[in-house]
Amino acid sequence: MKTPRDLLLEKHRAATAALDSVRMKALETAVRDPHPAGPRRFASQASRLPANFISKLWLELIWPCRRIWAGLAAVWVVILGVNASLSDKPRIVANNSPPSPEVLMALKEQRRVLAELIQTIPVEAVEPPRRGPQPRSERRGAVEMA
Asked: 65-75 pLDDT, tens per residue?
């Protein structure tokens, strides 16, 4: 009984010669002209370099983890939305009108009271606290012996 390997080898023995001839033709063309496009090939690759970099970056960093990146983007959108809705920007209203007569009277009264308080406090009356030897406190109560 023949093994599966033997059966496959018998079936494809005829293709071996055809594959050898294709291989020889490819080697001959490679030996004759190692750089078929010459310097133009490198120029075209240099112009496509940013596109290649971006596509490679996309395929290696973003595409395998697309669910994670989508989740992070959704979280950032939610954070920005909450931040925009909670921001309390103070609205400054420019009020160029003169103050009312009641406000002016209250300010004059406050200034008058402050001037009275400043004049009534004598400067000599305020003394800095003295620091010197202080007596020790006496013991309170008797110490009981057991």
From this structure: 889 989 999 99
